[in-house]
Design brief:
The structure is a homodimer of 399-residue chains. The first copy, chain A, is an alpha/beta fold and 399 residues long. Chain A contains twelve helices and twelve strands. The first copy, chain A, has a six-stranded parallel β-sheet, sandwiched between helices. Chain A has a four-stranded parallel β-sheet with strand order 7-6-8-9, with helices on both faces. In chain A, helix 5 links the parallel strand 1 and strand 2. Chains A and B meet through helix 4, helix 5, strand 2, helix 6 and helix 11 of A and helix 4, helix 5, strand 2, helix 6 and helix 11 of B. The structure holds a DNA duplex (16 and 16 nucleotides).
Amino acid sequence: MTVTLADVAARARVSPATVSRVLNGNYPVAAATRERVLRAVDDLDYVLNGPASSLAAATSDLVGILVNDIADPFFGIMAGAAQTEIGGQEGTGRAGGEKLAVVCNTGGSPERELTYLTLLQRQRAAAVILTGGALEDPDHIAAMTTKLAKLADAGTRVVLCGRPPLPGSDAIVASLAFDNRGGGQRLTEHLLTLGHRRIGYVAGPLERTTTRHRLEGHLAALAAAGLRDPASPDPASPGTERGEGYGESPGEGRPGHEGREGHEGHEGQEGLIVHGPYSRRAGYEATLELLRRAPDLTAVVAANDTVALGACAAVRDQGLRIPEDVSVAGFDDLPFSVDATPALTTVRLPLYEAGARAGRLAMGTETPPPGGIATITAELMARASTAPPRAAGGRGPAD
Amino acid sequence: MTVTLADVAARARVSPATVSRVLNGNYPVAAATRERVLRAVDDLDYVLNGPASSLAAATSDLVGILVNDIADPFFGIMAGAAQTEIGGQEGTGRAGGEKLAVVCNTGGSPERELTYLTLLQRQRAAAVILTGGALEDPDHIAAMTTKLAKLADAGTRVVLCGRPPLPGSDAIVASLAFDNRGGGQRLTEHLLTLGHRRIGYVAGPLERTTTRHRLEGHLAALAAAGLRDPASPDPASPGTERGEGYGESPGEGRPGHEGREGHEGHEGQEGLIVHGPYSRRAGYEATLELLRRAPDLTAVVAANDTVALGACAAVRDQGLRIPEDVSVAGFDDLPFSVDATPALTTVRLPLYEAGARAGRLAMGTETPPPGGIATITAELMARASTAPPRAAGGRGPAD
DNA sequence: CTGTTAGCGCATTCAT
DNA sequence: ATGAATGCGCTAACAG
């Protein structure tokens, strides 16, 4: 029923080995012979048996791209870029060095992350790209470290994209880390420069590196402005008890979430930080909470653009205007951010470029940065959603 | 170096066959023996060799999910739902019936679609889910039909999600089609009921089923209202010459696109239809064009929510207000649509539910609908971006 | 440049 | 309920 390499060999009157060689193209074959083989392949409509090939070669052409939330363009853009770099070159549909770039959605769950890695390991994947922030739970870090080491041992190339390097992991080909801390700092500095002093912060889920770094930047800017004791303990640092259910935020389809409060007590900014998932809804509810706690707030910084959208909605629903009454800022500069009204002030991350670079690194077509680590800069995009605060006094409701 | 089934068998003092049986769980094994084997697996940290397993069993645990644009939540939501249904059950990380659900980004390119299918075929994928609208090019349809037939022949379960059934393809397990036509019709009826008579339409790329069906619904509503000759030829029907570059709209990273004009000449609505990619930018430029052609326009219907966002921006940039001067409507009801200002009137598609169902169909855990075909209804979501047109006369610029 | 020979690691007959 | 034997389809030495 199914046509094999041997069938092709017979039709082309060559040995199976020769057919294998022309198909893999990694060995010299006479042009005439190649033609004959290729014709036989076409005639017979032959399709290589991947598993057999992978078994014999002890490696497959599978490349896995892990994302935390496939419904979030933040990941979609990176994954798409990587996939383009990996699988997009030929359009023949014929056999050849075609890699199969696939994306796997962990939904932010550490278990699923590990499970996918095992599945990819089982497939003897050629490479794995991990995108987005990591969970800072010590157990999970340990599990990930050993798992990635095993993958690397088995010949799988591991690349991190938008995720900080794993300490002591020489197994990793390269880590492309976003400068979330610097971006967060510049964003808050921008607000401070505009004159804001009471700034609410809607942070992401606890124990995520992305959350922590952006928040650190924010706090550093506040401290530099004398609004906070720089000696305060770091927020959301490893070792903190697991936030109840945070970090498990699955993408869609889970209504009913309520933004809960997280760490508090930063001097001078008491209660101005609320944690929640990276969702529009969390942004909405956390902002309502912030506005209730601190009615004198003049600005809200959100964990990312999606959260910022929710924050904007909450601000408006309270009858306040953006940016006249309250400034709002996001992070990532996703495509829709410029279309928000007013256009969202945010921090641009070169997601496409980073994803593409990760793809090349995974393919081995780009040399890794020195030390295997590169930090990707985040650029402030000051737009219309932020403006100087109203000169003291009460605010008038919009309209 | 790498530990095999035989190693586990030796450690557990059983035969390799027994180990295989407990791992696959599809054969009776004594409880005590199973325990011993499982312990050996753990001790040795054994990971099944996927390719070897697939080769011997002539099938793999790979399930492919094809999407047109991974950076678009429309696809992300469906793919994430399907993936949850397929791979999300166990968190053991251990071996077992774990399927590997992966998403493949075609970027809307027919070649890449075929290439991915070949790659999946090569891997002997257990199932394939095709999401989103199809291209109506006859050659491509033929190629897809034979390719899918081959996949089905090889035992791969094929499911269509958000895509119309392929004519004469009994190879397909099930087709879940969205009622794009009905949704489009109800949307335009809504506008007509509000009193609009001059309605611009920013259509999607030519030759996409989604584009055609939504447009057909629009035109049907117009015809029913006597605004168009019902006997007019169908728009964007197969056989039309390929639109220059349309249908190839790659996701991100390609600035510089200009919305070009498409079919025209529908009686009574001359030039009120413009085609372009499903992007925010296309919506922006097409709307500018529509406004230029027909300054008396009172409403703009967009191909989808993303395009609608661009349309909103264009309307505003012309100094017009939404909905006072121009109503704007989208399609899909993506999460961000309710956050637009004003909230976007659109047509809701149950993307998560459809994706989840497709996942179950692919797994064989849900019985296919009668005839293998189900139509999923689209619900009108009337929100603030649409309102009755101004009573005749010129419009005043906003502000 | 091409053919021959051996496995790759596992699932599955068949026996028992 | 378990073990022994066979082959899945291909690649990679090794010859020539």
